[in-house]
Amino acid sequence: MNSKLCFLHLSDIHFKKYNQEYADVDDDLRHELLNDIRNHAIKELHNISGILVCGDIAHSGKANEYEQASSFLNKICEIFKLEESKVYCVPGNHDVDQEGCKNDPILLNTQSKLESTTSHIEVNATITEYLSSSSGSGQILFNHLNNYNTCFAEKYGCKIDAKKPYWTYQLKLDDTYSLNIRGINSVIISSHLDHIFAGNERKMVIGEYQVPIKDDNIINMTLCHHPPDCWKDPENKLVKFINDRVHIQLYGHKHIQTIYQNDNTLVVGSGSMQPSRAEDKWFPCYNWITLELISSDEENEYIEFKLYPRKYNLLNNRFGADLENCHEGKLYNQYKININDNSSEVHIMTTDGSEKKLTIFSIDDVNDKDLIYHFMSLPYIKRSKLLDKYNVINELDEGKKHIDILYKVLNEIKVRNCKQEFWDDIMITERGRN
Asked: How buried is residue 98: exposed, middle or buried, by Cβ count under 10 Å (0-12/13-18/19+)?
């Protein structure tokens, strides 16, 4: 048995409103990254499965910054002949609309309450209290990500809100094993106050509810912007928890490429694809990733993980292999991750001390991701006509955004067994626009 998945791993791409204009000094940098992908990555990453973006897509969370980022990511997809829907993303602190935070005292008070928690139990209980509230108050925690969601993440099926505070997708490795990709939101309390004290960066709140459960025949991989040393986790409970349940952890934020193995979990820092040129050490970088399932018998199954660190060379102004961070004589780092383990489930403590499992809708069929992307890419009127044709909405959906009822629609068309017909109509409508 020998199955393989390949990915491009980017983070901290920091698109500004003036990127891709005539005076943009980073235009050549992005062009060289595309050249590196076109001339080298495509030879190693056969049948690429997706582009993994660990946050800080924008510079200041503004709508036009996401337009620029989408355009760039689409160029990468074109090189690989990859569906544009195969972008997987999580928000970073630069994706937070800080101006919006300043004008939202309810959000700031809610964030302050979460930041004042003193233990992992209290963190979990407080977040669960908000997300489980029948009043809808949990949506306050996502107000500062409106631009990120509506201008970028929702068309990739990676929107996060009170109804779906993380996302999950599964990719088949073979007939037995699947890769479970979980997008974790690390910016719940992020705002303009993150750096209010010089040299003392605010610690982020995560919550155990975002960590995927262990399950038979599942390889867990997480995307998260802030790495563990940036978490509010005084007892290291969350770190131990995620290390026990996740095989591969991908992070951004630090602008430094890193990789280390902690028991049976691999922790990878992407570095920054487009760091600020004002930084003391300006080293644009990104990664190629391959995961290969190896099995000699039922008792010896493992993932062979290869990380190809790519770095901008200031001598020739091109991207190339970061040999200093590769295994000797190789263009990559290679690790073995055992996958024979027992499964368990995650339960969250509520404020009264009882156990309660938080029910969150997740998309299990990866084809739904393509459907979401192409549907949301249609003009509003075209989307409305499709929804009317299939008669899947009612008066209770009046005034709601299409993305907010799309999961209901997906469930309904599956029940009616007309998903293929719905998909065909989307494709016909899309081609009719060209």
From this structure: middle
